[in-house]
Inverse folding.
């Protein structure tokens, strides 16, 4: 009887140790808030393209201007070389390429480098399933070309697979 209790106790102990060791080995390290936010823009692979295809849209000051950005795409990349982006068909609103960085510690705003009107402005972003929303303001400056682009923009983009 004592031997049976001792063997049972030993087996329970071995099972407990095995379970504890197994579960700690399979846990992945926790991601930081910045890593989570980066993955929202760049996907799990570190490179994600967003476009107006499949139901995307653009509005300026509440009016739809999607046709002005036909074929628009923006790709966010994050890897060992840094955080970069490329864009096409932006109607001179975005640079064709540059760097991006988070603005602040909440990791819900980015700033794009470059010289075009959307550059060096805080761009708020939200991701909901397969859609990305970018919201930003281009203030009215001195020159007429950029003044025509001034306004509050909302880009609703979808993932290109």
């Amino acid at each position: 009887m004592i031997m049976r209790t001792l063997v049972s106790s030993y087996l329970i102990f071995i099972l407990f140790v095995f379970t504890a060791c197994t579960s700690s080995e399979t846990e992945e390290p926790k991601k930081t808030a910045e890593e989570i936010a980066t993955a929202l823009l760049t996907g799990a692979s570190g490179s994600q393209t967003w476009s107006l295809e499949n139901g995307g849209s653009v509005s300026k000051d509440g009016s739809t201007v999607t046709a002005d950005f036909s074929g628009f795409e923006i790709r966010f990349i994050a890897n060992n070389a840094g955080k970069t982006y490329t864009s096409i068909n932006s109607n001179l609103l975005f640079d064709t390429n540059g760097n991006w960085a988070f603005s602040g510690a909440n990791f819900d705003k980015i700033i794009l480098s470059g010289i075009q009107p959307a550059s060096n402005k805080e761009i708020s972003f939200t991701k909901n399933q397969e859609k990305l929303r970018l919201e930003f303001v281009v203030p009215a400056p001195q020159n007429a070309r950029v003044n025509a682009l001034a306004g509050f923009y909302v880009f609703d983009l979808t993932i290109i697979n």
Summary: The mean pLDDT is 86.
